[in-house]
Design a protein that fits this description.
By secondary structure, the chain is α/β, with parallel strands linked by helices. It has helices spanning 20-28, 30-33, 55-68, 90-95, 106-109; strands at 39-43, 72-76, 100-103. Helix 1 (20-28) packs parallel to helix 3 (55-68). Belongs to the class-I pyridoxal-phosphate-dependent aminotransferase family.
């Protein structure tokens, strides 16, 4: 990918969860705003821990932060069918937001590997 420089947002070392406040701080930082950040990729459930982010408290916050800064949010839902406690419901709700792109994997969703 030409002229793309990824910026890694580290997860909290105790909970192993990405933090929307960290993303807000990253995007509002003057140095990073000059880097012209256009896209955030969020993998959910998160590998390698398998943690699924909660829609109401976590995913909505990521969507809101990205929307505030005019940044696209790509949510990688590769393992959407392997989340059994109903936390994957965000897929449909986030789809209604203008700045969200959901991606999926047919082979993994249906166990074709």
């Amino acid at each position: 990918m030409s002229d793309i420089n990824p910026i890694i947002l580290p997860c909290d070392s105790q909970s192993m969860r990405p933090n929307p406040t960290q993303l807000y701080n990253l995007l509002s930082d003057q140095e990073n705003s000059q880097k012209n950040i256009k896209l955030v990729v969020l993998v959910n459930p998160c590998n390698p821990t398998g943690i699924a982010l909660d829609f109401d408290s976590e995913l909505t916050a990521f969507v809101d932060v990205c929307e505030k800064f005019g940044v696209w949010l790509v949510v990688d839902n590769t393992y959407e069918h392997f989340v059994y406690d109903n936390t994957a419901k965000h897929r449909w709700k986030c789809s209604e937001r203008k700045n969200v792109i959901n991606i999926f994997s047919f082979s993994k969703a249906y166990g074709l590997m």
